[in-house]
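U., I forgot to send this yesterday:
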Amino acid sequence: MRLGAVLIRGERACCFSLTETDAGSDVRSMRTVAVPDGDGYRLTGHKVFSSAGPFADFSIVVARMAGTGEEEGDKPLFSAFLVDLDSPGCRVEDGATPMSGEHIESDIVLDDCFVPAANLLGEEGKGMRVALGRVTTNRLLHCPTVLGATRRAVKLTLDRTRTRQVAGAPLLMLQAIQHKVADMATGLYAARSMTYDALAALDEGREVHTEAFMCKLFVAESAFRILDEAVQIHGKEGLTQGSEIEYLFRKIRMFRVLTGTSEIQRNGIAKLLAFNH
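Result:
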């Protein structure tokens, strides 16, 4: 509870460390391991794409419990830990720079890093539930950010089509352009509406696993189509580095992969529909 309070007040920052080089969508293949040691655990492994890592004070690290997994012939068990990033055996390294150009991610490298038992998040062996629960919520919470960027792209496109002159008339007077902006605005409205509906259900405490998959899929794909049309309508300006539309396109393109690819979202939707209906 105290930790939540300092987070809310902005006194400490947190990042989330789940993904590894060979454990992205197949997250259960992670190699980071936690070995019980007296009144705590020793963690060893290498996490990548830890968002907010460059300025975080601690990380939620998910690790496989030593002695579990395919090599031992059983199901792997995972636990989640709160790891102070200035702990001995823990270092934060510069992560890969994404196509948006933002320096927002780090690698978290753990080398026999001791974590007190009090820093176990939830129950031992239940860490994957913690991790996937966070990812489900994150899928929804990323959607409004993407919708805001998409709304900005629609506004910039409308401004351009109203002012750009072609054959003595505004670009927006061409029916081909009118149809494009109509589809862009409609796609944005649909994506925003389903996101608001899912977030309202989440606020009410309802289960939104299927809705989170659906929103992530639809918002990501719709936003990408809208930004692609925005670039097309802006012409050479839309291809020029430094223009806002060009930057928004790169940023939005990433969302089709972040927090799970569109293909992973479809897999999740199909699985939940098969088992719940």
